Amino acid sequence: MGAKGYPYVYGGYDTMVKELGERLVAKGVHVRVYNHKALFKVKPRYVNGIECIYMGAVESKIGTQLSHTFFSMIHACFSDVDIIFVVNSGNGPIGWVSRFFRKKSVINVDGLEWLRPKWKGIGSRYFFWASRLATKYFDRIINDSDEMQRVYKELFNAESQVIAYGAAVKEDVEVAPIAKWGIEHQDYFLIVGRLVPDNNADLIIKGFLKSDSKKKLVIVGDVPFMDEYATLLKSLEDDRLLFLGYVTDPHELGAWYTHCYAYFHGHEYGGTNPAMLKALGYGCAILALDTPFNQEMLQNGKHGWYFQKEVDSVKDIVETAEASSERMEYFRKTAREGLIQKYNWDYVTEQYLAVFEELAGFKVINPSEEKKNLTEVES
């Protein structure tokens, strides 16, 4: 619980619910996902073997997420589930419910939510408080990067387990889906992500426009509401800028990744970022903001270059990248090697299952293994 639901794939947590849930079902686990009722017009009870419970919420800008998780937690605690798995550190305080009912619980706390510019003032203080409470109420804390594990130990004196976000190697996509924009192979730099301050699209755009590049900068992403920051960015007029908004067709999005000259990653406050993993999976040359999280994901420069949080630094890396075509090609050829074992969804699932089995106190019987053993006995 804590994501939008299944199979509603919109963001990182929803993708994790899908990838993890389907693999757990294949291993013999009964998986129940609490779906945000308002997002589903059709409400089947089972989808791909996953049980879906459609739970309502108090629909408001700040209350939807918390109320949905709270109602879901109450429902789960009065059921026969063995383990409750929650995502999002903002749900940390709700762990008191599972603690009260003595239900074993696990939470994936994601990144430094309290530092994100959108959570100023009370929002920032809430996320810090909620993250601290998560370490008190839940039986196991999961972080998706070594750096976040260090942060939770330093700030909250809390032990956590690192289980990275998963990814997959992607096949190259033909150039046809982007040809309608009159753009050719490697004729552009790419940004993919929400247009929010903590992704630093403004910094990248300003630095790019200050450079002498003749390529375009393609920006994929938006925000699902009226926002001054996003509106200001989209109002910038320059022939080199192309704002696409949301690209919902995964084939077209794959084409944008496949054919970019380099992918810009300005995300600042997260742990393991899905957009970065996708760029590695599509074999992109990557230019990333210099943060501990991005250093960890790119293995300290093995799979990309870094820029500082300065306009001139972005300008310089654009011009250096264009003058270093051989190095960019090297990054493209080796990018998929960056998806080491810890980012493999099958390996990620095995790690989560081990945590769940340990807390539950028993092992899950894999139906395929059971069938194999029965066949051997019969033989």
TrEMBL record:
Q: Which UniProt keywords apply?
A: Transferase
What does the entry give for GO biological process?
lipopolysaccharide biosynthetic process
Q: Where is the DUF1972 domain?
A: 1-167
Q: Which domain of life is it from?
A: Bacteria
Q: Where is the Glycosyl transferase family domain?
A: 181-337
Pfam entry (one): DUF1972
Q: Name one GO molecular function term.
A: glycosyltransferase activity
**Name of the protein described by the UniProt record:** Glycosyl transferase
